[in-house]
């Protein structure tokens, strides 16, 4: 039996059961949950960097977005609050749409 020791989506236990396999799992406490969300987020970002087509890129971005949604309650925050912060930062410093690549800053 493979050993995973990682955070999985909430319905994975049911998927495994329906396939006739057996598994072991446990519910993480809040601090462990956040730690595992961070690990999983890193894993999904790595997978996103390896995508070579639109479909795979969107699949990985959806996983990243789902992890952001999972992290918010741990911080007692909402997606609306996160979006408000994102918009404020964008208004102050801009977004990343234009692809500006800073090479150097002579004053620093």
SSE map:
Elements (H helix, E strand, L loop, with lengths): L11 H7 L11 H20 L4 H21 L4 H15 L15
Helix pairs in contact: 2-3
Describe this structure in words.
Keywords: Hydrolase. The chain is mainly alpha-helical. Helix content is 58%, strand content 0%. It has helices at residues 12-18, 30-49, 54-74, 79-93. The longest helix has 21 residues, at 54-74.
* Percentage of residues in DSSP E strands: under 5%
| Poorly predicted segments | none
What is the first-to-last residue Cα distance?
54 Å
Structural class: mainly alpha
Radius of gyration: 18 Å
Global geometry: extended
In short:
This protein has a domain at 28-93. It is 58% helix and 0% strand.
What attributes characterize this protein structure?
108 residues, mainly alpha, 58% helix, 0% strand
């Amino acid at each position: 039996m493979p050993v995973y020791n990682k955070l999985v989506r909430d319905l994975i236990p049911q998927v495994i059961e329906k396939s006739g396999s057996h598994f072991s799992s446990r519910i993480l406490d809040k601090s462990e949950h956040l730690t595992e969300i961070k690990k999983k987020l890193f894993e999904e970002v790595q997978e996103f960097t390896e995508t070579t087509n639109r479909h795979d890129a969107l699949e990985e971005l959806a996983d990243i977005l789902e992890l952001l949604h999972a992290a918010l309650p741990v911080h007692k925050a909402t997606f609306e609050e996160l979006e408000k912060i994102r918009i404020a930062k964008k208004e102050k410093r801009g977004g990343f749409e234009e692809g500006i690549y800073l090479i150097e800053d002579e004053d620093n």
